[in-house]
Design goal:
The protein has a domain of 158 residues. The protein is 11% helix and 38% strand. The strands form 3 sheets. Strands 1, 3, 4, 6, 8, 10, 11, 13, 14, 16, 17, 19 and 20 form a 13-stranded parallel sheet that branches. It has a 4-stranded parallel sheet with strand order 2-5-7-9, with no helix packed on it. Strands 12-15-18-21 form a 4-stranded parallel sheet, with no helix packed on it.
């Protein structure tokens, strides 16, 4: 099925089929039961403060953005997947705002940039899959947290102002594709600096010979002094 848009009003709705939105938005202003549904060709997912998506086993493919004004309660569903894809993106970017706990989150479109609102946190409880993408905090630090028990499949990525230190370390054996990018909780830890070595001055051959000679003279003087002290006093009466 293909539709120009999908809007859920305050009264809520249920949908369990497959639908292509042809790059229009998924607008959720009330409770949406989308268990088992497949949404493709989504431009932006917009969840209002009164909206929510129960997405057990569902898959949502979006290109331009994810905006969740309802916070963590705005999205739930075991086995669900949210995939940021190249189709419907705006200038190869996708904007992500609000705080959401995803089960599986994927972004593998080469050259795409995910821009996270400053202060927002995206948690992943299942599998976080990233490759050939850039993650940027917009206007300040944002947070991406892989929760305990979560799995990461991360290839080459660039990160700037996105903090992963609230959860598992991400891409722990990799390197940042953005040189100098601020990326707490990402990539391999820097090797400890090698201890500094202080050069100890050495003595030349002539100095060593001079010291040896001086030591010999001092030793000879001590020996003569000991012999003089040990001699008995001269007895004149014996003669």
């Amino acid at each position: 099925m293909q539709a120009a848009a999908f809007t859920v009003g305050a009264g809520g709705a249920a949908y369990h089929g497959t639908i292509d939105l042809a790059c229009d938005d998924l607008e959720v202003n009330g409770p949406l039961d989308a268990s088992g549904a497949i949404f493709t060709g989504v431009g932006r997912v917009r969840i209002s403060a009164a909206g929510s998506i129960a997405a057990a086993g569902a898959r949502i493919e979006l290109g331009a953005g994810w905006h969740n004004a309802a916070g963590p309660a705005g999205f739930s569903g075991s086995g669900s997947t949210v995939a940021v894809v190249g189709r419907c993106s705006t200038g190869s970017t996708a904007d992500i705002t609000g705080n959401t706990t995803f089960v599986h989150l994927s972004a593998v479109q080469a050259g795409q940039t995910l821009r996270f609102a400053a202060g927002s946190e995206q948690q992943v409880a299942g599998t976080l899959t990233l490759n050939d993408v850039t993650l940027q905090g917009q206007g300040g630090m944002a947070f991406v947290t892989l929760l305990p028990g979560g799995v990461q499949q991360i290839g080459t990525v660039g990160v700037a102002d996105v903090d992963a230190s609230r959860g598992q370390r991400l891409a722990a054996t990799g390197q940042n594709g953005l040189v100098g990018g601020n990326a707490p909780g990402w990539f391999a830890l820097a090797a400890p600096a090698a201890p500094s070595v202080v050069a100890v001055p050495t003595l030349s051959q002539w100095c060593l010979l001079l010291l040896s000679a001086m030591a010999g003279l001092l030793g000879g003087r001590r020996l003569r002094a000991q012999r003089t002290t040990a001699m008995p006093p001269f007895d004149r009466q014996a003669h």
